[in-house]
Specification:
By secondary structure, the protein is of the alpha+beta class. Helix 1 packs parallel to helix 3 and helix 4 runs antiparallel to helix 5.
Length: 195
């Protein structure tokens, strides 16, 4: 028999996210939806209490909550508050994931603390979706070509949560269109980068 009961910590995390959604998201969700504006005050409050960085390890300034079930419980409660606002909050966690899973120590030390910096909400964006590829990574046409010590990336992404306003982008591109997924790479790009 498998026990699907939540631990005391998971119950606490669920309550924490629910309380935030009930008190900070739901009361203003319709207003931000109607105005079609980014809910910066809500994002600032979410960042202040750790909801934008809970999945970043403590050594990089995050909450260190690395359990997938706990992540799902937190996300579920935030989305109960408002799917649009929750997407803006959760997108930074999605952008941090490739760095956590595949980044080297230098990349983790350089980028993750930026997202977790106290008092300064920073947004991340995970840029994979394309007009002709959707989320089918095997059909990505965005191209990355080496130019000296750097890469020049050309292509088009769409439906990128926090796109256009993020401080950190994870952009998926191919370095060899004929090699399919074999040449797919994830690039860490500062939101201050031209283009």
């Amino acid at each position: 028999m498998i026990d699907f009961s939540l631990s005391d910590e998971q119950k606490m995390l669920k309550d924490w996210a629910h309380e935030f959604a009930e008190n900070e998201i739901r009361p203003v969700a319709a207003e931000y939806d109607e105005e079609e504006e980014m809910p910066w005050p809500v994002l600032e409050k979410a960042h202040e209490v750790g909801l934008t960085t809970y999945g970043i390890p403590e050594e990089y300034g995050g909450g260190g909550i690395m359990n997938a079930v706990s992540h799902a419980l937190i996300a579920e409660e935030l989305f109960w508050g408002c799917a649009g606002i929750a997407t803006a909050v959760e997108a930074s966690e999605l952008a941090a994931m490739p760095i956590l899973l595949m980044g080297n120590d230098e990349q983790k030390a350089q980028w993750l603390p930026r997202l977790a910096e106290p008092g300064d909400v920073k947004l991340g964006a995970f840029a994979v979706t394309e007009p002709e590829a959707g989320t089918d990574v095997s059909a990505i046409t965005t191209r990355a070509e080496r130019d000296g010590d750097e890469y020049v990336i050309n292509g088009q992404k769409r439906f990128i949560s926090n796109g256009g306003i993020a401080d950190l982008y994870i952009v998926f591109a191919t370095t060899d269109p004929d090699a399919g997924n074999e040449a797919l790479s994830a690039f860490i790009i500062s939101g201050e980068t031209p283009g």
